[in-house]
Design a protein that fits this description.
By secondary structure, this protein is mostly helical. The protein folds into two domains: 183 residues, no CATH class; 101 residues. Helix content is 61%, strand content 1%. The protein is built from 13 helices and two strands, in the order αααααααββαααααα. It has a two-stranded antiparallel sheet with strand order 1-2. Pfam families: DUF2785. It comes from Agrilutibacter terrestris. This is DUF2785 domain-containing protein. Keywords: Signal. InterPro entries: DUF2785.
Length: 303
């Protein structure tokens, strides 16, 4: 069963996304603005009464998502875009244009390692707008699911926060993208399973111990997938057994004989514990009943 699960996981992580070439040469700060004006906008809580100017700037700020300065990349570009989307201050046309600018950035060359994770984080906000007020059609929504699966499976830069550089946090941002899609009732069981298995692909990457809260971020979409009541307790127990398997170790006791084994144990235990705590706190008894038996079983197997 574990071998079958890994083959399916590999297939999930190789889904094509059909992205167009990334837009190049984007200026940051965008044309018509400078650092001082953007800082003033942030100080004003991103209030911009001119609708046309706000929508132009929203598209321009996509070019700042790879900027090495965290004050521009995270503190202004991401915060402005998130704020405007959560206030429903961007038109559907602008949201579509922003999506089309961001999707290619998920796979574009990214030597500094900032652009891809911040494109994923803003796409999570785009996905949230469709959850709150549907504006995507089924094919466009499926496109985002494919993007989220492909991005999360493909993360290999595991840097979280670096002093002087700020956040990259690719796995956490990919998990947030999956979360916003998993919360959307328009997704079907197959789409949710692909998101679930993309999460599984990053629970315990070989040789890397998570220290920046990634395990909790990965657990969040899983608990909301479970809330959809599309998979029974037996299905969840089988999935959890596969995710929490000691392989390539022969058993969990062998983890104590190598650094690589301890890293895997650390990551698997962090994920399962985070998911257990989230499941235990669910107000929906059916969700608890779907997840907790499998979680208790895998926790008992880990020394």
């Amino acid at each position: 069963m574990l071998r079958t699960f890994r083959r399916f996981l590999l297939a999930t992580c190789l889904l094509p996304v059909g992205l167009a070439p990334a837009f190049a040469g984007a200026a940051c700060p965008p044309a018509g603005s400078d650092r001082a004006s953007l800082q003033a906008l942030k100080a004003a809580d991103f209030a911009l009464a001119d609708t046309a100017a706000r929508e132009r700037l929203a598209l321009g700020l996509a070019g700042c998502l790879g900027d090495p300065d965290p004050a521009l990349r995270d503190g202004i570009a991401f915060e402005a875009l998130s704020t405007w989307m959560r206030r429903q201050q961007l038109s559907d046309a602008t949201l579509a244009a922003l999506r089309d600018r961001l999707r290619p950035l998920l796979v574009a060359e990214d030597p500094r390692g900032f652009q891809r994770p911040f494109a994923a984080l803003v796409l999570a906000e785009v996905a949230r707008t469709d959850r709150i007020r549907p504006w995507l059609d089924a094919a466009q929504r499926e496109q985002l699911v494919a993007d989220a699966v492909d991005y999360l499976c493909g993360v290999r830069d595991y840097r979280g926060y670096v002093d002087g550089e700020g956040w990259r946090h690719g796995v956490a941002h990919g998990a947030d993208f999956a979360l916003q899609l998993a919360l959307n009732p328009a997704l079907d069981a197959g789409q949710l399973e692909r998101l679930r298995d993309a999460v599984a692909a990053q629970v315990a990457p070989a040789g890397h111990a998570y220290i920046h809260g990634e395990s909790l971020r990965l657990a969040r979409p899983i608990v909301f997938i479970a809330r959809r009541d599309l998979h029974d307790a037996g299905d969840w127990q089988r999935w959890l057994q596969a995710v929490a398997a000691p392989a390539p170790l022969p058993d969990w006791n062998a983890a104590f004989a190598s650094e690589a084994g301890m890293v895997r144990r650390h990551d698997v235990l962090a994920f399962v514990t985070a998911l257990y705590l989230l499941a235990q706190e669910q107000d929906d008894a059916a969700t608890r009943e779907r997840l907790l038996p499998g979680l208790r079983a895998v926790l008992k197997e880990m020394p």
